[in-house]
Design brief:
The protein has helices at 5-10, 13-19, 28-34, 43-56, 59-67, 75-78, 84-92, 100-117, 135-145, 150-173, 178-190, 211-227, 273-287, 314-319, 338-344, 375-379, 417-435, 470-491, 510-522, 537-541, 569-590, and strands at 231-234, 240-244, 253-259, 295-301, 362-370, 383-389, 391-400, 404-405, 439-441, 445-446, 454-455, 458-467, 494-503, 506-507, 529-532, 547-552. It is an alpha+beta fold and 592 residues long. A hairpin with a 5-residue loop joins strand 1 (231-234) and strand 2 (240-244). The relative contact order is 0.11.
């Protein structure tokens, strides 16, 4: 019989502890301490309470928890001494039926891992979808994590233990994240389409108006129709637009969505999560035969990443009238102009100007997005409310000194361009950290025609500076420029500095940010506010209407723009639930 939250809240301490038995391997102290926080408002609230007990425990207790877990396909499995829960999990992943070669490989990894870290390798082998990871993915993850720093790996082991507990809670409560599973499945199916040169390697790359890109647009449009959208079209720049009509003709619309293009060899969830979460919500409205006092417009933006042409945010920019006709003459790496690509795709270039939206027809814009960073993951929080999308400035620069012999030039006579840039990089790191939420990066650093025995005479570098407000960003830029001049003067160097991009910060509209905060709180999850260091389509819509974003936790330390980018069906379900909560709030506001 499935456990009910009301039953857990009403049980005596001893009964409640028994009800949660087996969540954390041989570690009842976690449930015992978490139960002191009853009553729980939701399963997500309970999960967070459990995670916080572990988080606040000392290192010895955390290591004890990790060491209470059995090795994967280890001696306990062979001897059939695993707990029922561990037996079920290792069986679902196929670890109880390894080939001799697979078993030998896992045993060798177990030995190497224990020697390096002093505790067993922990992996939630039922995976982000809950149905079990392929054995090869388990082996690959095992080998990859052997290279982690010990402190990071300890934290990664605990995060996997929390995921194991989450899945076991799903089993106890007979909870199935149905909509989270659907969102997961849509993204997996969409990832079947990838550009040539990448598809053959099993890598995901979808750039603007390639065959894979157009196939993605068709799939999204078909799924939108299946979900019950009243109108679905692929517009003049390739955006997929679905409109679910309001209860009353002429009412305004809520706009939402994100992009479906990817970086090269990227992840499956960047952008696409923000398309499928609202699609799931619309489908449920349609199934219930329910209309809201406002319409819902979901946009799968065709281009955000700037991978094929030098025109980022092309899809969302077109909706605010920000499309530069000069872009049409840009050529990709194969010499194909954007104009030719659009014509080949059957897009009507003359209609691009007609895409500009009238903000008077919209309530605002909201976007769900995977975090693309480690913060939520490290805090054991599934959702984060975005306070602002960082403003940014980028520069292309060169430090110029004198190339000279590495053996004959004394250290105090050198005019080393690379060392000067290295000094600047250290200053950028230190200065950005002073603000707490500013960031600065020298991501490209190159010594042209460099040689092992030559003091670098030139060093080309990039500079990327970001902050949640324009004033904070500009102060950072000013300080870095001043330090650059100081370093060059002190070292007898000169430099060039060219600004290549400037984007204004996009603070969330307070009322709309509050909608997300109320929605997250209603799920029983702590409300965590954070800036977005990355740019998003929301920052374009920000120019004409109020906007606010919700972040969803990523796995693997929140890595993004990478094949390891991932999130769970449970977190996707929470995102759908939060979006539904926002729709309810807006419906209440719009009622006459």
């Amino acid at each position: 019989m499935a456990l009910a939250l009301e039953q857990l809240n009403a049980a005596s301490p001893a009964e409640a502890l028994q009800l949660l038995d087996g969540l954390y391997e041989h570690s009842p102290w976690i449930a015992e301490q978490a139960l002191a926080q009853r009553p729980f408002r939701s399963q997500a609230h309970l999960q967070h309470a459990l995670a916080q007990v572990v988080r606040s425990a000392g290192q010895d207790a955390q290591l004890g928890l990790i060491r209470a877990h059995p090795e994967l396909a280890g001696k306990a499995m062979v001897a059939k001494n695993l707990t029922a829960e561990s037996t079920n999990e290792q069986s679902k992943a196929g670890l109880t039926h390894c080939t001799p070669e697979e078993f030998a490989r896992i045993q060798a990894l177990n030995t190497a891992y224990n020697e390096r870290f002093g505790f067993p390798f922990i992996l939630a082998v039922r995976g982000p979808r809950g149905t079990g990871l392929p054995k090869q993915e388990i082996i690959d993850t095992f080998a990859r994590r052997l290279d982690n720093h010990p402190e990071f790996e300890r934290a990664e082991a605990l995060r996997n233990i929390h995921r194991i507990a989450e899945i076991r809670l799903n089993d106890k409560f007979a909870t199935e994240p149905v909509l989270g599973n659907d969102v997961w499945d849509w993204q997996e199916k969409l990832a079947e389409h990838s550009d040539p040169g990448f598809a053959e390697k099993g890598q995901l790359t979808v750039t603007y108006l390639t065959d894979a890109h157009r196939a993605c647009a068709q799939r999204i449009s078909h799924w939108m129709r299946d979900c019950g959208f009243d109108e679905v079209e692929i517009d003049a720049v390739g955006n997929v637009v679905g409109r679910y009509h309001p209860a009353t003709e002429g009412a305004r619309y809520l706009m939402t969505g994100s992009h479906y293009d990817t970086v090269r060899n990227g992840g499956k969830y960047d952008g696409r999560l923000g398309i499928f979460v609202p699609m799931a919500c619309v489908r449920e409205l349609h199934r219930a035969g329910h209309r809201l006092p406002f319409g819902i417009e979901v946009v799968g933006f065709a281009e955000e990443e700037g991978q094929r042409y030098k025109a980022t945010f092309l899809g969302s920019g077109a909706l605010i009238g920000d499309f530069n006709p000069a872009w049409l003459d840009q050529k990709d790496a194969d010499g194909v102009t954007m104009r030719a690509a659009m014509q080949h795709a059957g897009l009507c270039i003359d209609d691009i100007a007609k895409l500009k939206r009238d903000p008077a027809h919209y309530l605002g814009f909201i976007e769900v997005h995977i975090e693309q960073g480690p913060v939520l993951n490290e805090l054991d929080l599934p959702l984060g409310v975005v306070t602002s999308i960082n403003g940014s400035v980028r520069f292309i620069a060169e430090m110029i000194g004198t190339a000279s012999h590495a053996g004959t030039t004394p250290m105090d006579r050198r005019r080393d361009a690379a060392v000067a840039v290295a000094e600047l990089a250290l200053y950028v790191e230190q200065r950005a950290a002073q603000d707490g939420d500013s960031v600065g990066t020298i991501g490209q650093l190159q010594v042209p025609a460099g040689s092992i025995n030559v003091v670098p005479g030139r060093c080309q570098f990039s500079l990327d500076l970001r902050a949640p407000t324009d004033a904070q960003r500009d102060a950072l830029v000013s300080d870095v420029k001043e330090q650059l001049a100081h370093i060059a003067a002190r070292r007898g160097l000169r430099y060039t500095l060219e600004e290549s991009m400037r984007a204004a910060a996009a603070p969330s509209a307070p009322a709309w940010q509050h909608h997300w905060e109320r929605a997250v709180d209603a799920l029983g999850v702590p409300v965590f506010r954070m800036p977005s260091g990355a740019g998003h389509d929301a920052m374009k819509l920000h120019e004409i209407m109020p906007q606010a974003m919700l972040f969803v936790r990523g796995l693997n330390s929140g890595i993004s723009h990478n094949p390891l980018e991932s999130t769970t069906n449970n977190d996707m379900q929470l995102a759908v639930d939060a979006f539904t909560q926002v729709l309810r709030q807006l419906a209440e506001e719009q009622q006459p």
